[in-house]
Every structure is written in C-alpha cells, then in structure tokens.
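Figure 2 data, in text form.
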Amino acid sequence: MRQDKPISRLRINLWRWGLLAALLLFWELGSRTGLIDDFFFSSPSQIWQTAVTKWQSGQLWRDISYTAASTLLGFVLGTVTGSVLGLLFWFSRRVALVAEPWMIVMNALPKLALAPVLVIWFGIGFSSKVVLAFLMTVIVAAMSAYSGVQSVDPALETLLISLGAKRRQIFTRLVVPTALPSVITGLRVNIALAMAGSIVGEFIASDRGLGRMIVYAGTTFDLKLVWVGVVVLSIVSVLMYAGVVALEKLLLLRWTARKAN
C-alpha cells in the first residue's frame, strides 16, 4: 500500500499565495488588454487606488469598524447566550425535549427575511445589526451546546451521584467539560453567520458600514467602490475567521491539558 509523503507547510503556503498572485496578475493584465471588461470588473490597481482614497478620507475605516463591531458583538452575545441555554437543558430533560423541536424550527427559519422587520423595530442604527447577528448565532450555539450535553456519559453521572456529588458539581465538573468541544466547534459557523446578519442588516437600511458602502456604490454605478467593499469585506471575514480558529485552538488546548490533569 502506497504511503503519502508528508506535506511541506512551506510548499502549501507558496502554492496558496502563488495562486492568489497569479489571479491578481491575470486580472490586472486582462483589464488592461481588454480581455476583461474593466467597467464591470475594474482591476486590482484601480481597486487599490479607490481604497487608498477612501481610507485617507476616513470613510473606509469608519465603515470597517462599524461592520466589525456589530458582527463581533452579535457573535459574542449570541454564542454566550445560546451556549448557556443549551447547557442548562441538562438540568431538565423534560424542558429540553419540549424545546428541541422549537429550536429546530427556529434554526430552519430564514432569519435574514426578518431583517426589514428588525430594522423597523430597532431603527437603522447599530442595534438592528447586532440583533440580527445575535439571532443568526444564538440558536446554532444552543443546539451545539445541547448536542454536547447529550454526549455526557450517564455512567459517570451515576458514579458521581453515588460519591455524593451535588447536581451543581456534576454540571461544572462533568457536563460543561464534556460539552465544551461541541460549543467550540460551533464558533467557526457562528462567526460567518454573524457577519452575514450584520451585512444584510446594512443592505436593508444603514447610515454606515461595508454593506451600506456596497449598496450605495451599486446604486451610483461606482463599481470600483463596489469591488473595494467586496474585497475589504472578504479580508475582514478572513481575519475574523482566523481569530476564531486561533481562539478555538487555544480553548481546545486548555481543555485537553485540563483533562489530562
């Protein structure tokens, strides 16, 4: 049986960045030679010049900070609230069984369709974007935590009860550590959902943010600015995702070390 050779991390990174460089080069050359319509697709150099102009005016940084703040706040509130709710289901199996189909229905509900209603309720400002990001993440976090609660070994619960442990001690010493990997796994999904909620809220109505920038640029046919918004939004999304991955690795490392001890 053939064994795969170990993959060089450096070689993989060179391929990744090389493909990106090749794509940008093809895009730039295609735009300059007419192979690509620069009105619709612009070019990396034009996008860069537009981004620098908006950054120097302060507008780009204002929009980035607005979108990032609403995304992160909604992500934190939704993840913490949902995780706590899912963990607390361990105290009452009856409540959990009653709530489970409701969580499934609410998770399947197209929450982005509620964006216009939320904007009417909470206004076009910062609050409506945070609420939408919160709604996008809270159910996913609750279901992830509840899935972890269901994986708790009943035999260990019985053993701890026989040793005189109280329910609070069982919850903190057994249930939470057991469910923690499931909670952590849901972080990657939630950061993307929070970003989607915040951006859609800005699409509907907002006075600032990257979503508002894209919509405004589209209505004025400023396609260079549209591409600036798309590229910057992609970079912000990647950075947030990388931050969540780093947090996930840190939490799992601490969980593994604590479990070993």
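Caption note: The chain has one domain: 43-260.
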